[in-house]
Specification:
By secondary structure, this protein is α+β, with helices and mostly antiparallel strands. It is 45% helix and 13% strand.
Length: 405
């Protein structure tokens, strides 16, 4: 695939309708296909097309590129609505809007690649993701140098390696790949590390069908192999070293952008609440003679589910609102706030399933699928143990700043 260098393009990017009714229609249309894609594990093209028609995939494209440049609170609303319909589809969307938001804020993409990504996005459903994890390294958020490399050539780079958990798989238009740079005059003990952007259809890119997961089954989070993939020199973006000379993956700590991931699981909890309501209103035991929704036990359970969702929503939107208003004091706590949101989401779905007994665990009931999907909130970085350890060290640090907190 050959792309011609040209000046940065300004595109006519649509502004999506974010009214409650419009988002509810998106939720409903995507939900129609969720069970089907959960069973087959196929790329959820019908639902991805819904995102494209609604203008959601380009919602965060920066105004300098002709986009609406929507902020994190709008992203949270969008991704939660899509997650309520199908969290696999929401994960495609979250990764894409996070990429566009980062480009709008700090740049870094090769202009030719980004212009091509935007042109495709206006024509058809187009998705992008940062592919970081490796079979041996694991999650790069825990540290380490990627074994996937780019080797300098006379006119660019050759990309080689093997990545794991590449959400989107063959459904992606572009990837940004976490790599080490091998250069003739470089220090092999201290390689440059960063991301290189690549179209997903270049020769040498092979997707391996490894994804067979308990949840997010249609997310196509497969492994991918790179064999001498030719890329231009400008496609590589180095990540600055830390003070000690090491590198840290950008996903190692929660930030406002990363809240898009937990937002989609709030959608899962909302779906569980809706299906719990539908089941209990329709379940009329002969001995009771009325819907179980009219019993105090079920009403108390519904209240507990609602409490957990309210907790998650308030933590998410309250944190983003504080950041929007310039309150930087919350930044050190974003990782544990993300953990608290995840715990509330899992609790809400588990409570719903447990209250129904066997019906809640059957595949004929959507609650079983919601629980499987909700459990996946725990895998997004930073993971719970790392976040809690970092928070504990911060709280117990012997500093004047901590003493005043």
């Amino acid at each position: 695939m050959t792309l011609t260098a040209e000046p940065r393009q300004v595109h006519d990017v649509p502004v999506p309708d974010l009214t409650e009714d419009a988002l509810a229609r998106v939720t409903a249309e995507i939900a129609e296909h969720a069970a089907e894609y959960d069973r087959t594990g196929e790329i959820p093209w019908k639902s991805l097309e819904v995102l494209h028609r609604a203008g959601l995939t380009t919602a965060t494209v920066g105004t300098q590129y002709g986009g609406p440049g929507l902020g994190q609170r709008d992203v949270a609303r969008i991704v939660s609505a899509v997650g309520q319909g199908d969290p696999s589809v929401a994960l495609f969307l979250a990764n894409t809007v996070m990429t566009h938001a980062a480009q709008a804020a700090v740049g870094g993409w090769y202009d030719v690649h980004y212009d091509d990504l935007l042109r495709r996005s206006l024509e058809r459903p187009t998705f992008v993701n940062a592919v970081r994890a490796e079979p041996e390294l694991g999650a790069p958020a825990r540290g380490g140098i990627p074994a996937t490399t780019i080797t300098r050539t006379s006119d660019g780079w050759l990309l080689n390696g093997h990545k794991a958990y590449g959400t989107g798989g063959r459904g992606l238009a572009y990837q940004t790949v976490w790599v080490s740079a091998v250069e003739p005059d470089g220090d092999p003990e201290r390689p440059r590390v960063g991301h290189i952007s690549t179209p997903n259809d270049l020769p040498g890119i092979t997707w391996l069908d490894t994804w067979d997961h308990i949840g997010l089954r249609a997310s196509n989070t497969h492994d991918v192999r790179y064999d001498n993939v030719e890329l231009p020199y400008e496609a590589f973006r180095e990540i600055p070293r830390q003070a000690d000379g090491s590198y840290r993956d950008p996903a190692a700590a929660a930030g406002p952008g990363g809240f898009a991931h937990v937002a989609l699981y709030i959608g899962v909890a909302r779906a569980a609440r809706a299906d719990f309501r539908a089941f209990t209103r329709g379940r009329v035991p002969t001995a009771l003679g009325k819907p179980i929704a009219e019993t105090e036990r079920i009403q108390s359970v519904a209240g507990e589910i609602d409490l957990q969702i309210a907790t998650a929503e308030t933590l998410l939107h309250g944190s983003l609102l504080r950041l929007e208003q310039g309150d930087q004091s919350i930044l050190p706590q974003l990782s544990v706030i993300k953990i608290a949101i995840g715990r509330a989401v899992v609790a809400a779905t588990q409570i719903a399933v447990a209250a129904l007994g066997n019906p809640g665990l059957t595949r004929h009931n959507a609650l079983e699928r919601h629980l499987r999907n909700a459990l996946c909130v725990r895998v997004h970085p930073p993971q719970e143990d790392a976040a809690l350890l970092a928070a504990g060290k911060r709280v117990l640090a012997d500093t004047a700043e901590t003493s005043r907190a």
